[in-house]
Design brief:
about 290 residues, alpha/beta, Quinone Oxidoreductase, Chain A, domain 1, Rossmann fold, 3-stranded antiparallel β-sheet, Zinc-type alcohol dehydrogenase-like protein C16A3.02c, ER, YIM1/Zinc_Alcohol_DH_Fams, GroES-like_sf
Amino acid sequence: MANLPGFVLRRWISTEFDFAGVVVDANGTEFKEGDEVFGWHPISQAITTGQGALAQYTRSPATNVILRPKNVTPTEASGLPIVALTAYEGLFDIAKLEAGQSVFINGGSTAVGSFAIQLAKAKGAHVAASASAKNEAYVRSLGADEFFDYTKAPLHEQLVAANLTPKYHVFYDTVGIVDPALFVHSPAYLAPQGLFLSVGPQQGPGLLSFAWNVLLRPTFLGGVNRKWKMIQVKPVPEDLKEVAKLVEEGKIRPLVDSVYAFEDALKAYERILTNRATGKVIVKVDPTVA
């Protein structure tokens, strides 16, 4: 939301993307009234239609909605779609992570990073992750095999010093850092055919340096001989079904940082802006829902 220009935001009737609720008008789809579902509004759709999730009623194409697994509450399910799909599509649709391979998750305590750890472990991969020391227990509880405290020293220096063998097949930056150091030094810890994947650099100083060192600098001028890609989550119905299946099987679990009443939505944004949330920040529109 913070990265979207004001003229786009002004077009929205309501904001936000993830939701869980009850179908009140199936409109001729495979659903029926009373079905308990969860889903999401892709950003492109939200911009075009003005429809968002932070409302008492919302409309969405049936392809972006799925029945809610019975082993999770509406509150838990409402924080699933975008972060789980970002992790899933990045690891499997783009990076093609396989069982037995290794992956590094930068930002293991972030919402996307938390799901990336769980999904990679469910696949049978070896997982290393970074976070601050206070979140080590949380990150390990999700399945991380190795942990790096990024507050001890620059993370790229720790990874270079680790002299890893074998090197990681996938490096997934779920923080969206602008500093290109992790990518520039990645040949020391990312396999030659590996992939450096990112949710994309966030706004801030250093974008020019990032663009040159990551996107533009050729290898004959000292550029890095590794692939870098940015994940842009897409509305793939099969991926949403797979996420729901993994939740139903107990292989991944929703992660809720905090819950706010509808009238306290601004406090939810304040929590997000602290950059200290572990898991999703949820706004509960209906106070009677679990």
